[in-house]
Design a protein that fits this description.
seven-stranded mixed beta sheet, about 30% helix
Amino acid sequence: MNYLINSCTDPHWNMAHDEFLLESLREQVFCLWQNRPSVIIGLNQSPYAEVDLKYLESRDITLARRVTGGGAVYHDLGNLNYSIAGPLADMENAYGLMAETLQSLGVDAQRSGRNDILVDGRKCSGYAKRLSRDRMMIHGTLMWDVNLETLTRALAVPGSKLQAAGIASVRSRVANLKDYLPRFHDLRAFQDALQEKLAGDSPEIRLTPEQIRNIDQMADGKFRSWEWNFGRSPSASFAAGRKFACGTIQVQYTLRHGVFESLIFGGDFLGNRPAEQLAAALIGQKPEALLRMSVADYFDGVTPEELAGLF
């Protein structure tokens, strides 16, 4: 199968590269690639419901939205990703291709459920798909030596498949492939072997400068934008509470397309003005709008940064 080499580890650029493979090429191709630490959410997910956004910010972990459905996944440089795209008629065997290739390298990999690949009953890969006109793309992960603690923390919020899971629980359900392929001393050796198996004698496709510029523009105009990563989020409801100097503040709120759709403050707090006024002012705004408001008028002694910590 023809292939492309992609050494970029920028998640937003790589999401644009995947869309380019699907939309702009005609032949069947594959690409092996990596992302720096990032969480990639599915096309129809809300990051507020799937991801611990505060943890991502504290660890400089990038959030990106892909063009395929499915759930949120964590990527780092211990993970190898693959993309296969081509005319629909050529993609009949693409679903099983990665499991078969792993088997040829000595791993007893088996497809399971909708979109998982298991080794020894544990998940080592998940994949998603997208159809566009007469072309299809399948892309997925291959866990080689992923940081499971970071993975768990990044995804440990209500709505995540890893909700409330401890590290031991995660380790019992997922597998890093390095434990099953000791003959490969590192991920690079594994990637080279995988590349050779998939490519055979097929040629490399090299993108033109114009094609690379098109991907750059797509990455900047779409995949890095707040509108793409947050603004298209469906409704998600939350509740939280904490004790402050003014008393206990409780919040119930719904975010839709990344802005407040509803917001209610409750609790035994003290303030000079009704908190309903602040809630009304925030409807239709992003949560970070709190940082520009004088919240101490509604909650004695509370700073905007403290109140924003509830959301």
